Amino acid sequence: MLPGSPYPLGATWDGAGANFALFSEHATAVELCLFDDCDAEAESARILLDERDAMIWHCCLPDVRPGQLYGYRVYGPWDPARGHRFNPHKLVLDPYAKAVGRGIQWDDSLFGYELGHGDDDLVMDERDNARFAPLGVLIDPAFTWGDDRPPRRRWERTVIYEAHVKGLTQLHPDVPDQLRGSYAALGTQPVIDHLQTLGVTAVELMPVHHHANDRHLIEQGLTNYWGYNTLAFFAPDVRYASTDDGMDAVREFKMMVRALHAAGIEVILDVVYNHTGEGNHLGPTLSMKGIDNLSYYRTMPDDPRFYMDFTGTGNTLNMQQPRVLQLVMDSLRYWVTEMHVDGFRFDLASALARELYEVNRLSSFFEIIAQDPVLANVKLIAEPWDVGPGGYQVGNFPVGWAEWNGEYRDTVRRFWRGDEGQIAQMATRLAGSSDLYEDDGRKPYASINFVTAHDGFTLRDLVSYNDKHNDANGEGNRDGNNNNLSWNHGVEGETDDPEVNALRQQQMRNLIATLFLSQGVPMLLHGDETGRTQRGNNNAYCQDNELSWINWELAPWQRDLMRFTGAMVRLFQEQPVLRRRRFFHGRRISGSDVRDISWFLPDGQEIGDQQWAEGWRRCFGLRLAGDAIEEVDYLGRPIVGDTLMIVFNAGDDDVEFQLPSHRRGLRWHLVIETARNRRRRWPARNRFLLPGRAVSVLRLAQGA
User: Fold this and answer.
1) HSE of 297 in the Cβ direction (CA atoms, 13 Å)?
2) CB 328 within 8 A of CB 273
3) Less Cβ crowding at N or C end of the chain, within 10 Å?
4) What positions carry a catalytic annotation?
5) Which CATH superfamily is domain 157-275+310-577 in?
6) Which pLDDT tens digit goes with each residue over 485-521?
7) What is the pLDDT of residues 22-49, one digit of tens each?
């Protein structure tokens, strides 16, 4: 054994040997434990790390090679009342492990305290857990990237597709059986063809960091399918590899990224740095809790036995500790530099910003990211809320960040549900949510617009159910938010009624059309383009089965919906006026009375303050002037697009709409309509019949 180096942290192979480095401020001793194979009941070697620099314990082993399984035993005080939970009887996983060679095998010995005493976690458990604990594996990072390079898609040209690696590919008939559900499957040509047909420019993958499957779910025959329970921030989850080898998971992930990049598609990771899978004071000891609980987690200032929980999962990572902040930053940089990902969506990002109890958008975390030369060039997306006091922070993240816009989601849903008093809010969201993003210098593309996401109803279920149906989750249907209300059009759930189904399909088209007609970055939930259903389950986090997976056997109406979605994406990409880099200001175009954006009532009059406030209104239109974009292309040439007229009708009745006047020689051409099985009627010059519950898009162009 050689002294090795305190940096880099984790296990690193350089071709001549392996360096091991672990941070623990309060430990009194650390042992590196090596295992011959995953089935070993005990270590083949225990190596006492007698080198310690800046609270990092380290050594170098010249004879160790990739594939070596390892863990740590960390010695220190067992004093939960003071926040210390050291227990050398427990083998713990390296937080910097680049791959996991053996996952958790649940057993009582994985808990640092003796079970069976109710909420009493004060008595140390002295059973050895070596047979059951997760193990890291040393990897060879070499990989032939070839000419791989990030697509660097501009924000305003980005279309995000939120997807689950397994859910997207598990049932795809054109993916080889042995690859389905894996990183390799996501990189196959059939899946890439689907993404390209839709026009997707980025996949936002639900968590791929290796996560803990909750014991209570396993005992119920369920699993943590979504993966928001991270255990290893550097390791791609081996459960999404086509083999059970942790090193293969790393290679497959890189191959997937390379294939998607070759197709011009970016890879964004949904990352969970706000908490880990070790839970609260009654949770297991798997990694950080046994390495240095007081350093890694936020504990209650007046009673450090307990955790500050801003996440609803039992614990919150301690971003005030410099080494913990370094852990997160090192992880982010690793996924960009070594795994070539293009961006991150931060789960419960408000929890990362907290200084004491307050959410501080200029906290150390954001300051460090802002000046980091690696992370400054990737896409950064916040889920701008957590479950703590003051945690809803939509619109409050710094310049350089985009946000999931919950205000957009809620307004669009309310409008198409037929709620009163929505047209003013709807107009604000369609125009890019300047009320949230303009004051601090951000652009319309700071708004990630979405109607549905993994957390909630699918698009099809949104228009088919009044109430959630989560009984399969084993919680008596008490989990998940029941905020849908009156979308089922008189029939709860699936039905054979053709009239009800036609209306629901039209509502799905309305919501998809709205998404791609709004300023900002559209995000589509995987399977919504084909009408995927979870049969009313709006919290399918534990359903790793056909309830969650995409069924690729499509009915004719589903294929029609997929074609319609692709058409909306193409319209978004083809029309510069739909993806502006600047907010509208209602300015007049030089030499005319036309403004860059104008809002109209059905009688052709522009909407005034009084009309915006009239709660009964459910129909309006907007004209987007294509020659008022005020932007230039990369050669400095002015960007000029078509002038579009978009009309929305959330009411039940048809409405005759007076279209705006225009120059001689031009006419309005119908481009998109969400209504089906109707005869297009133009009652008179520049008058247009807009069906109930429908959207129509018209383009001003030459024509008689």
Assistant:
1) 35
2) yes
3) C
4) 347, 383
5) Glycosidases (3.20.20.80)
6) 556 667 888 999 999 999 999 999 999 999 999 999 9
7) 999 999 999 999 999 999 889 999 999 9
